[in-house]
Amino acid sequence: MVLKISVIGAGNGGVTAAADLTVKGHEVTLHQSANSSNDLSRIEETGIINFNGKPVRIHKFTKDVGDAVRGNDVIMLTIPATAVEPIAEKLAPCLEDGQYILINSASAMSSLRFKRVLNNMKRDVDVKIGETMSLTYASRYHQATNEAVLISYNEHNLFSAFPSRFTEEMLEVLSRMYDHLKPAKNIIETTLNNGNPESHPGPSILNAGRIDYAGEDFYLYKEGITEHTVNVIHKIDEERKRMCEALEFEAASKSERSVRSGYFEEADSLQEQYNRSPVLKDIAGPANLENRYVTEDVSNGLVLWASIGDEIGVETPVMDAVITLTGALLRKDYFREGVTLSKLGIENADAGRLNSLMEYDHTR
Ligand SMILES: NC(=O)C1=CN([C@@H]2O[C@H](COP(=O)(O)OP(=O)(O)OC[C@H]3O[C@@H](n4cnc5c(N)ncnc54)[C@H](OP(=O)(O)O)[C@@H]3O)[C@@H](O)[C@H]2O)C=CC1
Ligand SMILES: O=C(CO)[C@H](O)[C@H](O)COP(=O)(O)O
Questions:
Q1: What span, in angstroms and rounded, lies between the C-alpha atoms of 6 and 21?
Q2: 3-state DSSP call for residue 230?
Q3: ipTM of the complex model
Q4: Residue minimizing CA distance to atom 7 of ligand 2
Q5: In CATH, what is the architecture of 196-357?
Q6: Which fold has domain 4-192?
Q7: β-bridge pairing 157-162 and 128-132
Q8: pLDDT tens digit sequence for 89-121
Q9: What is the CB < 6 Å shell around ligand 2?
Q10: HSE of 145 in the Cβ direction (CA atoms, 13 Å)?
């Protein structure tokens, strides 16, 4: 069945998704915000995206958010986790009963956060909201050539609705868009399976000098993950896995999860898997430290993970060290600025209570 899909967030993921879902037969509207930093004039003028070498004409391109959302079945957000609240505020007045909101990005309890915005705005609309653990694609959009490059699909992408009792219903609809979505127990499980907080910030800050010096010539996956920096990823993965165990989620390692996603090949070490990944090795960057690999993945990644650890009694010394050092490098207090369970209204919850809070809508 053809779905009418709005894509909100016209960056790498959004433009790629607009083309990919059009090729899959859906009716796709791509929305670009008024304050976008991207030049999408060629899509605006022609409706065409060059998608892995072939021109694809999308249904509609619009800068009007109401026009983007009206009458559509699925509203898909391809945005950084840092933007969930402002985007929810913008979308709230336009949403319609029966719509499905898919936050297709780096999971950070974003569906609950979206719901809290609707509640705060007293916007009583019957929408279902859910999130993937990570963006469906590794992808880049090149403005100069109007080219969306879908490098790879994430072939094992966990998904959960908030509240989780709607996961099955949402998956029935969303599986028409993506056949790689797998049910998670809840949005804490998707959040703890977002790969970026362990891949990106530790190795990036350990390469801060090199990044400051090399700028555009730095490649995190190929050169920044070395025999020593990879040990920080191992330590963070151990802390993350202990949280998964306490919450009774599957506690697969980074290596196992990325092989399953199709991003890594089998190899002798995690370092080799990163350095040789056919999906990741040629991705450039970060070219500076004010990049989502550091800012988003600390403020909405490690800080949230560490706060989950605090709540359920799992210690996270290496996550805490990376958060502290990132704050020192960027002159910020990420423990204060970042997303925490307490800021989401969750306190004094052990693992069992945390899981049960995700089953029903406790935010009202
Ligand atoms: N690209 C990839 O390969 C991967 C991405 N991800 C995750 O998916 C998210 C989206 O990725 P990607 O599409 O590459 O990101 P981009 O930065 O290319 O695009 C994100 C889009 O989100 C919108 N946006 C809204 N508010 C903000 C804000 N405050 N700061 C920046 N952008 C904002 C913008 O849309 P507009 O232009 O309309 O204003 C922007 O173009 C990432 O943040 C990342 O966590 C995860 C794994 C892989
Ligand atoms: O962000 C990315 C590229 O910019 C990667 O695609 C992402 O890190 C891979 O995801 P995962 O770690 O979940 O396999």
A1: 11
A2: helix
A3: 0.97
A4: 196
A5: Orthogonal Bundle (1.10)
A6: Rossmann fold (3.40.50)
A7: antiparallel
A8: 999 999 999 999 999 999 999 999 999 999 999
A9: 134, 138, 195-196, 199, 258, 261, 263, 280, 283
A10: 12
